[in-house]
Structure prediction request, 119 residues.
Amino acid sequence: MPAFGSDGKISDWERFHFSTGKLSLPHQLRANRTVGDPEKVEVSWQNDSDSGLSSTHDELMMIVARDGKFTAPIATGALRKQGNAVIQLPSGSGTLQGIYLFFGNEEGKLYSVDQYFGI
Prediction:
């Protein structure tokens, strides 16, 4: 509820979440638009695959917010063990509010919490 304004629309994108779960979200997760190519995002994180239920093969997932509408979860192909990736934003019209990043395990049954980036 704290993510919504009095008009019922999202007013605080960082407080709005899609994912929750038992996997850890890596420390120092960062995302920035690639210089020279605004359709790509450079993502980096600390590989912490030896903690809790996390695995080296957990995959980075993304949800994109444009004009208050969201994509389905997108598998990026980047694995936790890599520590960084350059991911392509899906094509779409409208104003990009940002992206939500989180990790999912190989079986697609465990997920981490998500983190919003207003890129």
In short: The beta strands are 30-34, 37-44, 59-66, 69-70, 74-79, 84-88, 96-104, 115-117. The chain has a mean pLDDT of 89. The domain at 19-117 is CATH 2.60.40.10 (Immunoglobulin-like). The chain has no helices and eight strands.
